[in-house]
Design brief:
mainly alpha; 14 helices
Length: 276
Amino acid sequence: MARAVSTRRKILVTAAAWLAGLIVFFPILWMVITSFKTEGDASAMPPVFLFFHWTTENYAEILERSNYFLAAWNSVFLSIGSTLLGLVFAVPAAWAMAFAPGRKTKDLLLWMLSTKMMPAIGALMPIFLLFNYLGLLDNRWGVLIVMFLLNLPIVVWMLYTYFKEIPGEILEAARMDGASLWREIIYVLAPMAVPGIASTLLLNTILAWNEAFWTINLTTFDAAPLTQFIAGYSAREGLFWATLSAASTLAILPIVVLGWFSQKQLVRGLTFGAVK
């Protein structure tokens, strides 16, 4: 039987939740506000919050001096392309682990996840030299392959947890009706796992969009996404906080809009299997 919760406790919990949310959101809010300040107001002490001369000159300067739309296109290409490529490989792998597991399946899953714990700097030099030898530095396809391999363990793990919730008897019935392996995956498994596949796609698109370490080290201009776009302003402009804040706001705007409209799907994907 569910316990009754007092009104006072509900108010306290709600207030605590709002306070935690504001603390998490405040750096982003401050960045957006700073992007509309002059450089003098941005570096004023004590800081001014709302009562300053609002201006959009920082955005106009960035759009005039930088190719924002090329960087945005590169971010879209790398994040969506690496995620779709990951799904092509991860769906069959997750199917095999969920419905035809071997003795070492769980060890293999843990090993795949453990690769995400390795410091990226440890693999930078060999990958950089390999890219330099193959002529893949500042190449979209080269960076796409790195991001695909980077997020593949997460994609496989998420799909594995979704597929484990699907009754194996349904797939066995499809096999008895003569379905081949690919027809079983495409026409039986995939439709039942659409919510899980959608959550996996959204989460990994966001992870790929926010990836900065590899994009900063492997790209300069032609393949540079928005993470490199921000880093470029930080290196050139130093302590010009208003300009840097405007560049950062432009860089996060598309993914914030995507996250806002898909938040229910994302929460469902992140909490799937957490409560049985």
